[in-house]
Specification:
Mean pLDDT: 87
Number of strands: 11
Distance between the termini: 25 Å
Low-confidence stretches: 1-5, 91-95
Strand order of the largest sheet: 4-7-8-9-10-11
Length: 287
């Protein structure tokens, strides 16, 4: 699959959903057979029309990260693709969110999405430009705690000659921030997984999905040696939380370095399983 030539609508929707994106990311998602310059020209025109603005990143090369203006956010608010399942809008002011989460958070989500989309096209599978939803909100029951992963991924894979729709929660983890923040996120996911259904029958999540989404922890800003330590720490954190440990025995979960994901693709043996004893790295569908 090569992807269709982008349209203004497609680019605006992606900017509404992702808050920040580079021209290269937008081109990977929407560019089709056209060259990168065509995407850059489109962004320049949206800028002239007052719908998109850019910030210059401090890294070498002075690359631009694009976001919607207030007018652009207003224009996309009526697009069905920018609405969340709970009916709220996805578009948000870029700079306040960037200050809260860090610009690298949004750009890394774009990098992860591009890696899955590129791999799907190469393998003849399906992961489209709108198949990763940043920061979805899932509540464990009517009054239960809220689980908000960094993103939720949808992917159609060919496994054993069978076409399967897979889902995964994506978490971003910087090991230098310590283990507690990511352990708290994983524990919130476990509470969503263990929540019983109406009348105590089954699990509440079964009303949303046939199988519970996989759990993918992407490690950022870490060396290969540091990643091994980070994975070991995540396993220790799970052992301290019975509910989390139980979930990891039932739900495929793994951690991988962002650099390995971008270089080798998500299907490569880069994912370290989080459940039980240490196992050999594998592809994300083999967790």
């Amino acid at each position: 699959m090569t992807g269709d030539l982008e349209t203004d609508h497609d680019v605006l929707v992606t900017l509404a959903r992702f808050t920040l994106a580079t021209a290269e990311q937008l081109h990977q998602l929407h560019g089709g057979q056209a060259g990168l310059k065509q995407t850059q020209k489109r962004l320049t025109r949206l800028h002239t029309e007052g719908l998109a603005e850019f910030i210059t990143l401090p890294q070498a090369g002075r690359a631009k990260a694009w976001h919607l203006t207030a007018a652009g956010a207003s224009a996309t608010a009526a697009f069905p693709e920018t609405r969340r399942p709970d009916g709220t809008g996805a578009a948000a002011a870029a700079e306040p969110d960037a200050l809260r989460y860090g610009r690298s958070h949004f750009l890394n989500l774009g990098r992860i999405h591009c890696a899955f989309v590129t791999d799907a096209r190469t393998r003849g599978e399906d992961c489209g430009p709108l198949d990763l939803t940043p920061a979805p909100e899932h509540r464990a029951g009517t009054d239960g705690p809220l689980y908000r992963p960094a993103a939720e991924l949808a992917y159609t894979a060919d496994l054993d000659h069978t076409r399967l729709r897979l889902r995964a929660f994506v978490e971003l983890h910087r090991p230098d921030t310590g283990t507690e923040p990511i352990a708290g996120q994983l524990a919130a996911c476990a509470r969503l997984w263990e929540q019983t259904g109406p009348g105590g029958a089954g699990r509440a999540w079964e009303r949303l999905w046939r199988t519970f989404p996989r759990l993918l922890v992407v490690l950022t800003g870490t060396t290969t040696a540091e990643a091994r330590t980070a994975v070991a720490d995540l396993r220790l954190a799970a052992e301290e939380r019975p509910g989390l440990a139980e979930m990891l025995t039932a739900v495929p979960a793994g951690a991988a370095r962002l650099e390995d994901l971008l270089q080798h693709g998500p299907a490569a043996p880069i994912w370290h399983p989080l459940a039980g004893q240490e196992r050999r790295p594998c592809g994300w569908t083999e967790l």
